[in-house]
Amino acid sequence: MTKIKHHKTIILSDIHLGSKWSKAKEVAYFLKENSCDELILCGDIIDGWCLRRGKKSKWRKRHTRFIKSLLDIQHETKIVYIRGNHDDFLDRILPFKFQNISIVKDYIYTSCNKRYYILHGDVFDKVTSRLSWLAKLGDIGYSILLWINKIYNNRRIKKGLPYYSFSKEIKKKIKASVSYISDFEEHLVKIARQKKCDGVICGHIHHPEKKYYEDILYLNSGDWVESLSALTEDYEGNWEVVFYHQESKIKNLSAFIQDYPDSKNS
Questions:
Q1: Is the pLDDT confidence value at 193 over 90?
Q2: CA angle, 44 then 45 then 48, to 5°
Q3: Which CATH number fits domain 5-126+175-257: 3.40.50.150, 3.10.129.10, 3.60.21.10, 1.20.140.10?
Q4: pLDDT at residue 131, rounded to an integer
């Protein structure tokens, strides 16, 4: 029997339920292995953009099961759901509270005498906040990159090689992408400082990170499309970036490399 790790706080973002690239099975397994007092969902949990494109095969049983799992754990775990740009349909009901689940635009989290400003991050992204049509066009290109990533990893697994995020590495090697990430981080750090916070926590750019900008701690929880990553906090206020492929004890690597279609028993 797998031993469950308990944390003070877990932060997940960019699961993109409704997209065929979403690793819903993997994130559900992660939450079975890792419990917490407070779970913060840092935006883009549901991919409304994808669902609005009307591709019926995208919402799958495992996506529904993940939502049900949240309803199950909310009896023991406080859940804060922060709206992202892909789940901007939530704007119509914000703020909203149902039992132990709150849905908000942003959140001030206090722990161990430190304050953290938590938001998805899209509001400080000029592309998504001012040029939404361009962002959606870029989203299509990103889907193509993920499709290539899937084919690449299917070949790797046949050769007995471990998972490798081809799309993530491509982005890391593009100078414009590196510059964009740096500008994004610095902008959020500036906002956190203005709000008199000790740190800022976000998602949005699918780039897990933990670093200091002078006195401000910048944390990004990554995503469950490419990185399969999360942020965890212990009771002493220490934060860590954790990755599913490092934490999981599943022996069959294809369980998280391949995006299996749902069967009748799935």
A1: yes
A2: 65
A3: 3.60.21.10
A4: 39
User: Does position 3 have pLDDT exceeding 60, yes or no?
Assistant: yes
pLDDT surpasses 90 at 34 = yes
